[in-house]
Design goal:
The chain has a five-stranded mixed β-sheet with strand order 8-7-6-9-15. Helix 8 packs parallel to helix 16. The protein is built from 18 helices and 15 strands. Helix 8 links the parallel strand 7 and strand 8. It is α/β, with parallel strands linked by helices. The structure holds FE3-S4 cluster.
Length: about 500
């Protein structure tokens, strides 16, 4: 590890009667060195560490890190540690200016502010957004980063061609302090090649379709690198639409651990893949499993809803019961009164804020409508009169925050509609939460009437699919995925998914 000079950070002196304090500057170095040591042996990394040009730190909400995390960050900041590269904060649990009107308690707000202050003291920009690439720093192709928000990581790798692993909050901060990260994982060429070919033979039209597709594919490929082959039946341009790809990235990172994907002919490292995939598959591609996604409309219940169906446990495991579970979900969801409609996961772009404003013109909402975005985007939207349009209708454009790390129980929010597959996925893992999922238009329509207005199957999406080897034979994965025939598609997918055990993080 002699390739770089360790940051010189003064250690905090011990107080009388206390153990020698940790040297938090050196702690950063030790974290990075330890991560480099325990990383899987790569073929031949030329160097153990690589210089980074930016970092992004997650674990900012007090709801996530609690007192121990707060103490750690304050100690780290007091030690004099400073970041060496532009470093950005992920969203926290509240709008830092409007928390009172949201009903956030003084106690939560005070602790939340201390977290932000500690990070600022270390030089981290209080961007408080999961889309730093939108207005703060656009990642450049081939540059190395240490980002930690999973959807931002996937977008940086896939849509911009930059290189970052899925860092944890502390490891991203340590990398920012050292200006280095281990040269492993997605920093290396050999780990950026596709592991699965995904052929989508049904149309995907909007962000909810892409999100549903992402949830499904993430579960099938885990930490793999899927390569999507765009489909002619989809409207032109949908596979190049940033909002759709952002939804796809966020969902795959949530249900699986996808940190990099390719879209043949579209994403930076797959510009030429479309030609490769059109004709005969190349040797490398020929060895890959292929997933054919045939239907995004008809076959999925979110597990928490499935668990709540009157017939009790496990009814998704037989075809007959799957139907009754669907009926139960439909009944539970039709006209479901909503506590909130959440838009902006990942954080809404200016275009998305504009769409919400357009859909609301002249209308009033009957439930909370929260559009979460970055402060910069909100300022831009405000300058264009979009925030006013939304707020006149009763909605709120909120900066700095993420619904998933806000104190929802404290706010009395137990039924949420969203156009974000990622939000839906994680909220469904919470026992007392009811979740409706559909496209933006449906969500806004529901906000206006105060209850879910989706059709029965708008809340239940994912996919029928087959997993085949390149020779056409059906194959299973380590999770036992296998679809034997059309009639059994649904059942096998339910069995395979195992959603209910997915952790929230
Ligand atoms: Fe961003 Fe929170 Fe969604 S961090 S991606 S708004 S879960």
């Amino acid at each position: 590890m002699s390739h770089y000079s360790k940051p010189r950070v003064p250690a905090r002196p011990a107080r009388p009667g206390q153990a020698e304090p940790l040297d938090f500057g050196n702690l950063a170095v030790r974290i990075i060195e330890a991560l480099a040591r325990i990383a899987p042996r790569e073929k031949s990394p030329r160097q153990p560490l690589v210089e980074i040009v930016s970092a992004q730190v997650a674990g900012v909400s007090f709801a996530n890190i609690g007192e121990p995390g707060l103490q750690l960050l304050e100690d780290w900041a007091r030690s004099g540690a400073r970041v060496r590269v532009p470093t950005f904060m992920n969203p926290c649990g509240m709008d830092t200016a409007r928390w009172r009107e949201l009903g956030i308690s003084d106690d939560f707000a005070r602790k939340q502010r201390r977290i932000i202050a500690a990070l600022e003291q270390m030089g981290v920009t209080s961007s408080l957004t999961c889309t730093p690439y939108d207005g703060y720093l656009r990642p450049e192709r081939g540059r190395h980063l240490a980002w930690s928000e999973s959807s931002a990581v996937s977008c940086a790798n896939s849509l911009f061609g930059a290189r970052t692993n899925r860092e944890g909050g502390p490891s991203a901060l340590a990398a920012a302090i050292c200006g280095r990260t281990p040269m492993t994982g997605y920093h290396l060429d050999e780990n950026r090649v596709p592991t699965h070919v995904i052929r989508v033979t049904c149309p995907v039209v909007n962000e909810a379709d892409f999100g549903a597709l992402g949830l499904f594919v993430g579960q099938q490929v885990g930490g793999g690198v899927p390569c999507f082959v765009p489909l002619k039946e989809s409207p032109p341009g949908v596979w190049r639409d940033m909002e759709n790809l952002k939804a796809l990235a966020a969902a795959m990172a949530a249900s699986g651990a996808v940190a990099l994907f390719h879209v043949a002919g579209v994403t930076p490292e797959a510009e030429k893949m479309a030609d490769t995939l059109k004709g005969e598959l190349t040797k490398r591609m020929a060895g890959l499993p292929e997933i054919v996604v045939e239907n995004l409309r008809n076959s999925f219940c979110f597990p928490s809803l499935l668990r709540r169906s009157p017939a009790g446990r496990d009814e998704g495991w037989t075809r007959k019961a799957a139907h009754s579970a669907e009926a139960a979900v439909s009944a539970a969801k039709a006209g479901r009164k909503l506590d909130a409609v959440a838009i902006g996961c990942p954080h809404a772009s200016l275009d998305e804020v504009r769409k919400v404003a357009d859909l609301l013109r002249g209308r009033k909402v009957k439930t909370r409508l929260w559009v979460t975005t970055s402060r910069r985007t909100r300022d831009l939207a405000a300058a264009k009169g979009l925030c006013n349009a939304i707020e006149r209708a009763g909605g709120k454009v909120l900066a700095d925050m993420c619904l998933l790390v806000a104190p929802l129980a404290e706010l009395g929010i137990a039924a949420v509609a969203t156009n974000s597959a990622k939000t839906a996925y994680y909220l469904c893992a919470r026992p007392a939460m009811s979740v409706c999922f559909g496209a933006l238009e449906m969500c806004i329509k529901s906000a206006i009437v105060g209850e879910w207005r989706g059709r029965a199957d708008d809340g239940r999406r994912t996919t029928d699919a087959t997993l085949r080897s390149s020779d056409g034979s059906l194959r299973s994965t380590s999770r036992g995925i296998l679809v034997a025939d059309t009639d059994n598609h649904r059942l096998q997918l339910f069995r395979v998914n195992g959603w209910s055990d997915s952790p929230v993080n």
